[in-house]
Amino acid sequence: MFRQPATRDVVNLLLERNASVWHACQFRDLDSYLTLGGVPSRQRLTTSRLPFTRFRTDAADLRNGVWDKVFLNLGDYGEAFARGWIATPNSFGPIVIQLTPLALLETTSVAVCLRSAGATDFDPDKESLAEVADVDELFQNSHTAPFPASTFVRFGDMLDGLFPGITGERHTVELSCATPEGRHGTAVRTAEPAEVRP
Fold first, then answer.
1. Average pLDDT, whole number, for the chain?
2. I need a labelling partner for 12 at 20 to 30 A (CA). Which of 4, 51, 126, 135 fits?
């Protein structure tokens, strides 16, 4: 798990790769996000009494203690479908929000995990990657590869064997982010800070 100031190193890695962080949603969710001023946790949506799409993983998110986290991805889940590959559209919704990695500077911690937080017995403290070099390994190509190849993320079988100490199904990379107000779940805004300082 990355906590400030270590999160800054993850941000710098993603910026070096020209990578983004992503979130997908339905239109009703986007309307609530705009009211709240950013991408909120499920808990923030619930307490705000604004409408949002219910997922079958909601009960698991509550059970696994991640209801108060903001979920992001290192890749656009809908990209494969958009390119005409054999894939389904984004299951989280047709609206994709592309955020600068600088948004992660507004978090208190970021868990970079290789399976969904809705998985059985998910534990972000045990499953989160701990080193920036491990996050770098999640990408298919070197950071020196030309854009957009520098941003291509491993998924599915490409994740197998990368981190033997991490067990369970590894289908994709997911970020679960804690926000400054913890369980009150403030929103991750898209505004960029003026600069990143070491």
1. 83
2. 126
Distance between CA atoms of residues 82 and 77, nearest Å = 10
Residue 188 pairs in a beta bridge with 39
Q: Other CB atoms closer than 10 Å to residue 95's CB: what's the count? A: 15
And the tokens for 44?
């923030």
Please give the model's pTM, rounded to 2 decimal places. Answer: 0.85
Round to whole Å and give the CA distance between 19 and 53.
27
**Quick one: pLDDT at residue 70?**
94
| Alpha helices (runs of H) in the chain, residue ranges in sequence order | 6-16, 27-36, 42-48, 58-63, 79-82, 124-127, 132-137
Q: What average pLDDT does the segment 162-180 reach? A: 78
User: Which among 117, 124, 171, 85 has a CA at the least distance from the CA of 1?
Assistant: 124
Indicate the SS3 state at residue 178. strand
Dist. CA 159–CA 169, nearest whole Å: 10
* 129 CB-near residues (< 8 Å, 6+ apart): 112, 113, 114, 135, 138, 163
List, in sequence order, every residue forming a beta bridge with 177; answer none if it has no partner: 70, 110
3-class DSSP state for residue 95? strand
